[in-house]
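Incident log, support desk, overnight shift.

02:14 A customer reports that sequence design results differ from what the structure should imply. Their input is reproduced verbatim below. On-call engineer (initials T.W.) acknowledged and began investigating.
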């Protein structure tokens, strides 16, 4: 009888553990990969679903370090108060390297992105549906 109870407890524990892992997998963070070349991003518009993302910014022979700034569309991009700071790369990205941001929750709406170090257009658009 004790063996049956132990087996049942282990089975129930395994079910709860599997459900917890499944929820973690569903809520996992995805990546948005962007490439910078001299003077521009190669991706001008991106559409993603609402969720949490890490930005991967590649510096493809720009010749100097690059960064990344994300702002809700319509906000003053020159005001750092409007920048989504979790989307900043953790450190400037050197030529030939890739840098990442912290996880950033993106809600439905439109955003613009640009690089303050590699003068890029400020009309690159990220659409979150």
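02:41 Re-run completed on a clean worker. Output:
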């Amino acid at each position: 009888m004790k063996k049956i109870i132990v087996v049942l407890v282990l089975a129930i524990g395994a079910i709860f553990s599997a459900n917890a892992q499944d929820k973690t997998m569903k809520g996992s963070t995805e990546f948005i990969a962007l490439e910078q070349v001299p003077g521009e991003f190669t991706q001008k518009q991106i559409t993603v679903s609402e969720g949490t993302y890490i930005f991967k910014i590649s510096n493809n022979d720009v010749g100097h370090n690059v960064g990344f700034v994300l702002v809700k569309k319509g906000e003053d991009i020159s005001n750092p108060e409007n920048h989504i700071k979790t989307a900043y790369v953790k450190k400037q990205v050197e030529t030939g390297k890739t840098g990442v941001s912290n996880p950033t929750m993106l809600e439905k709406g439109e955003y613009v992105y640009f690089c303050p170090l590699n003068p890029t257009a400020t009309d690159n658009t990220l659409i979150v549906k």
